[in-house]
Amino acid sequence: MTISSLNYNPVLARKIILAIFCALMFVHLGFVFAGFYKGDDINFSRYAAAFAHQGFSYQIPTDHFQLRWTPIFFTAIFYKLWGINAFTSGLFSTICIALCGFILHKIIRRQPISVYLLTMALFFFSRAMVFYGHRLLADGPVCLAVLSMYYFYRSALGCKPANASDGSALLKVVSLSA
């Protein structure tokens, strides 16, 4: 039995691979608690909880944690919806990493399936993604912002998704993901 006899659909296969890796990130968030990272995520959580329960009130920042509005705002929304727990604390970072995976999919979708699978595995199983993917830190949104800027810059230049002969684009994507 060959792949061609099974009506192999490469577009569907890539979407399934992306969905599996994103699902693994959410499983990791739900079942693996690797502790807090020093005091950063505790401070973000404190400000998000205050925002969720007391609403927005401007005060002069006394530390740099108050200036990271994006993770605080979205975590406050999750706290309001589902309560304060370890899952909702890491949900924003996990969503950002999953969106990074989607952008990476858009960039390399025309690569051979073996290259696509290797790139996704390198991205999702890299130490940075596993370490920051479930912690309430600003690293997930920063990764999303950088990869989004790269993708939209390529799109503005009129670059098509990388094909098999575009080795430099593939090297850039893999270096960003590693």
SSE pattern = HHHHHHHH
Rounded mean pLDDT score: 79
**Rg measurement, Å:** 19 Å
Low-pLDDT sequence parts: none
Main structural class: mainly alpha
State the helical fraction.
Answer: 55-70%
Terminal CA distance: 36 Å
Net shape: elongated
Can you summarize the main beta sheet?
Answer: none
- Strand percent estimate: under 5%
Number of helices: 8
In total, the number of strands is: 0
Question: Could you explain the architecture of this structure?
Answer:
This protein is an all-alpha fold. 68% of the residues lie in helices and 0% in strands. α1 packs parallel to α5, α2 packs across α3 and α5 runs parallel beside α8. The mean pLDDT is 79.
What secondary-structure arrangement, pairings included, does this model have?
Blueprint: H1 10-31, H2 40-54, H3 69-82, H4 86-108, H5 113-124, H6 127-132, H7 139-156, H8 167-177
Helix pairs in contact: 1-4, 1-5, 2-3, 3-4, 4-5, 4-7, 5-8
Pick out its properties.
178 residues, 8 helices, mainly alpha
Sum this structure up briefly.
By secondary structure, this protein is an all-alpha fold. The protein contains eight helices and no strands. 68% of the residues lie in helices and 0% in strands.
